[in-house]
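USER: My hope is that you can spare some time for a protein that puzzles me. I am handing you a single protein, as its sequence and its fold in token form. Walk me, if you will, through where the backbone shape changes along the chain. The protein I mean follows directly.
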Amino acid sequence: MTLDKTTADYVAKHLVAAGDLLDEDPELALKHAQAARTRSGRIAAVREAVGIAAYHCGDWAQALSEFRTARRMGSKSPLLALIADCERGVGRPQRAIDLSHTPEAEELTGDDADELRIVVAGARSDLGQHEQALAVLSSPPLDPERTGLTATRLFYAYADTLLALGRNDEALQWFINAEAADVDGVTDADERITELS
């Protein structure tokens, strides 16, 4: 709404293209998002789009910078888990853990809270703290009846952490739970089950 019609159309086309390409060609998606940013760099949603595309490309530093900029501009999107994961990506797992102790983290609920749990557990594992990672993932207790992407990722991370602790039988059960929750087939839980069986 703050852009003139020609600029708004240009930005919108690039953002739509970025969204469409994100899964199949994240590098091209990033170029489209960056093109949108050249004409509307003062819009938080555009900076988020660049951050998300950079995140999908594994460009943690650029993603982190864009997410922080979007937040300074007033973004209300739940970006904390992505920011924490970028901190892990740039080699600062302790900063990811520290973000989980902020007031913003305490306000997260549902899938947003679970995504942060997954990231923090990964940061703990990065530091070799597998028992603490398991504690993060299991509080609150997991419900094996859940389905969907976040539940799948949560169960998979839990199984992987159990495996790192040498608790193979329990890990197998949670990979089975992850496969059952994985209605979109986004993980290799079935392969992990085969390996452990």
